[in-house]
Amino acid sequence: MTGKCPLHGHEQPLDDAYFTDPYATYAQLNEAGPVHRFCLPDGIPVWAVTSYDEVREWLRDQRLARRREFANADYTNDVPPEGVPVAPLVMEDPPEHGHTRRLINVAFMPKRVAQMQEKVEALVNGLLDDLAAAGEGGQVVDLADKFCAPLPIVMVSEMLGVPKESWDDVRRWTDDIFGRSDEVNYEAKVGFANLLRGLIAERTEEPRDDLISAWAQATDMNGEVIPAEMVMLLILSIYTGGFDSTLGALTASVIDLINHPEHTAEFVANPGIVPAAIEELMRRNGSVHRGFRRFAKEEVEIAGQKIGLGDTVFLYVSAANRDPKQFPDPDVMDFNRPPYQHIAFGRGPHVCPGAELARLELRTGLHALFSRFPNIRLAVPEQELEWRESTFIRVPKSLPVILS
Q1: Rounded to two decimals, what is the model's pTM?
Q2: pLDDT band for position 84 (50/70/90)?
Q3: Which CATH architecture has domain 16-402?
C-alpha cells in the first residue's frame, strides 16, 4: 500500500503498480481484512469490500443502492459510465430496474444465445483467417485489435442494429469514454451521442428487427415512451457489458493461457473440459474488477465495519474471486475447481444479462485461437504491456503477439 490522499488522509492503494498487476493489491487487501477504507486515484473516498462471502452477500442486498440520489457529497465523479446522474439499467434499483431488465433479457435468452453458435463460429473463423494473413512470416500483430475486439463488437453491434460502417468509430469512442483524458472523453461522448441520436430517430420512423428499434418505441413503468437520451445510455450500458468487458476478459485470458502452456495443451486437446476451463479463466480474468458503485441507503454494517448513510461502496468481485478462504491456492490455474462458484458476472438483480453470450464467445474464440495457433506468444515482455488506467474494467491498450 503506498501513498495517502492529501484531502482525506486515507490510503490510495490503486497506484501505477495496481494497474499493471491488480492481483498483488487484492492479495494484500484480502490478507488485511474483508472491508477497507481508501481513496480512489481521483480522491473519492470509498469502502472497498474484497472478501468472497461479503461481496457475494452484498451484491444482492438492496440497502446498497445504485441511484445517485443516495450518494453523499464525497462522490464527485462525472465521468461515464458511473459518473452520469441517471441511466437506465445500471443506475436503477427495483422495481424500475426489473422493468428495464425485461427490455434487455429478450436479447439474451439462453435459447436465443444458443442459436448464435454458428454465427459466432463463422465470425471467429473469418477473424482467424485475417489474423493468419496479418501475422504471416512472423509479423507482430495486435491480437486485441485483430481478434479480441472485433468478436464482441460485431456481435453486440448487430444485435443493437448499429451499421457496419460505424463499428470502428464505436470501438474508438468506447475506449476513449472509459479510459482517456477529459478532452478526449468529451469528444468521444459527442461523437457517440450524435451517432446514436440519429439511429434512434431513424428507427423510430422506420423500425427494424433490432434492439435500437425495440427500445426506441418501448415505454417506461408509467407507460411513457422512453426518452432518446435514456435509450442512448441503455445502448452505452450494453456496449460496456457486451463489448468492453468481453474484450478485457478475452485479452487477459489469452495472456493467462500463454503463460500456462500445459493447461493450454489440455484446453485444446480435450474439448470436454472447455466449459469448466472458461469458468476458471473468468474467475482469474474477469475484466469487471468491481461492481458498479453503490451507495448506502441507511447505515449498515459489513463484516463488523459500520458504513455511513450515503457512503460509496465498491464490491470487488475480482478480489473476491481470489479470496483464499473460498478458493484454495487462488493464484493457481485449476480447471477442476467446483464450477460456477466465481462471481465474475455479478449476482442478484444486476447480474450480467449477457453472461451466456460472453461464455459462448470465450469458449468458441479461445478454443479456436489456440487450436489454430498453438505456439502463439507475446511479442513483448508481459510487464511492458500497457493497461487502461481504470478501476472498473481492465483492458490492455494493445496485445502484440507472434503467432508461430
Answers
A1: 0.93
A2: confident
A3: Orthogonal Bundle (1.10)
